[in-house]
Amino acid sequence: MAAAPTTTAVTSASSTSTLIHELQHLRNTNVDDPHRVVSLVTTLIERGYAKRNDDDVWAFLEQAAQAALQCGQVASAQVCVHRLSSQFPESPRVAALQGMLYEAQAETAKAWEHYREWLRKDAADVAMRKRLIALHLSSANLSSPPRSKMDPSPSQPNREHGLQMLIEYLETFYQDPEGWSMAARTYAEMGCYPQALTSLSHLLLLAPHNPFHLLHHAETAYTIGEYDLALKEFLRVVEMSDGVKGAGRRAAVGAKLCIHRLTSSGNSTTTNSDPLLRPKRVEEVDRMLTALLIQDGGKAKGEEREVWGTWLGGAGRGETRG
């Protein structure tokens, strides 16, 4: 395996071959560092590398266009996409870049028509369909007489139609975690939390060991009052995490909030058949969480530490320690 090139500041002294080698390494290892790519690309373009016609330059231009779009460097992306479109007018990858360029230029109607036109030629293009769905979900002013299943209905809010398109897509491409994550996020933004929870359940079937997906599931369950489910999920995140930090800290706090809800008036755990939710077990779990969070909060100082200790002492109810 080739050694990773050392990341250094791009200067006039950096050789062209060194810059190209680093770009190739970033591309081959799927490292997501668009700002670094843009820095390298800018220098190479200034040296005239983009005007060459050998095979390597096309991969370079595609990488440059993607990074420029991510960083909002629309002018640079436009140069790269134009060159690629001239060379590969029928390439679906270049067509996707062209649509993304339209979006970056706030040419929403052009992007919409561009994606639809391409899907008329190739309805099986998954990447283009996902771009069209994402465009519908993020835009509110598209309107056109309906001509096919892929067109928005003028009598229906655009986001709802985009969600309908997404669900139809997931019926065919069930094993797409990104699609289920998008569905959950969209449902939550629309206030449809039960549907968001269902989407996250599908996501967990595909990626059961991702603590952030599990944390999102727990928080959504808490939002709709499913405190017993939320507690179990929060505790799973704590168990999966390396100490009480990041997702683990957030989950520990969420679990304590669940315990407060479950033990408050009207939510007694006394008659619950689940062993985890028996009063004695809940108290043990609460003490464990408090100990973990106190250990973590010991790094805080002054007023922040006092507030942290007060919250923990009252399990989120504002009571102080004795």
TrEMBL record:
Keywords: Endoplasmic reticulum, Membrane, TPR repeat. InterPro entries: EMC2-like, TPR-like_helical_dom_sf. Transmembrane segments: none annotated. The keyword Endoplasmic reticulum applies. One of its GO terms (cellular component) is EMC complex. The keyword Endoplasmic reticulum applies. It is found in: Endoplasmic reticulum membrane. Part of the endoplasmic reticulum membrane protein complex (EMC) that enables the energy-independent insertion into endoplasmic reticulum membranes of newly synthesized membrane proteins. PANTHER family: TETRATRICOPEPTIDE REPEAT PROTEIN (PTHR12760). This is ER membrane protein complex subunit 2. It comes from Microbotryum intermedium.
